[in-house]
Specification:
Elements: H1 3-29, E1 34-35, E2 45-52, E3 67-75, E4 81-84, E5 96-99, H2 104-137
Antiparallel strand pairs: 1-5, 2-3, 4-5
Helix pairs in contact: 1-2
């Protein structure tokens, strides 16, 4: 792996963590939302990542395809909770509203983790840039 591939790998990691931060922001924004049916209630979003590596034998992967790929964003299978609020305009015929399945504590942990991973990838890019600069300075 050349130094130039390091930028591709770290860049793909930064892009993946950016998707993760966006899903966390969406989840936190909808943490207290309610709906009139369990099907309409907001469900927490979770990004799905996959490692992408060039094949050791040169087959099955394109050159420079190392890194992280976002396969998609899935919804959490956790159950939504119901609350008895007969005065709520969104209440169903029995007086229940259905709250999202977002756990704010888990989302804050995800946010901190994604932020630190993003920062680590930035540090990798900075270090690689400094190493390249030092290599160029050897000829002076």
């Amino acid at each position: 792996m050349s130094l130039f591939n390091i930028f591709n790998v770290a860049g793909s990691g930064m892009a993946a963590q950016s998707v993760r931060l966006n899903t966390v922001a969406s989840n936190l924004a909808n943490a207290d939302s309610v709906a009139s049916t369990p099907e309409a209630a907001y469900r927490a979003k979770e990004p799905l990542f996959a490692a992408v590596r060039a094949g050791l034998d040169g087959k099955g992967a394109e050159a420079g395809s190392e890194g992280v790929r976002v396969l998609g964003v899935t919804e959490s299978p956790a159950a939504v909770t119901s609350r008895y609020e007969p005065g709520n305009p969104l209440a169903d015929a029995n007086g229940y509203v259905y709250q999202s399945n977002v756990n704010p504590v888990d989302e804050l942990v995800n946010m901190i983790s994604a932020s630190r991973s993003y920062q680590n990838n930035v540090e990798v890019m900075t270090t690689a840039r400094q190493l390249m600069q030092k290599t160029l300075d050897l000829g002076k």
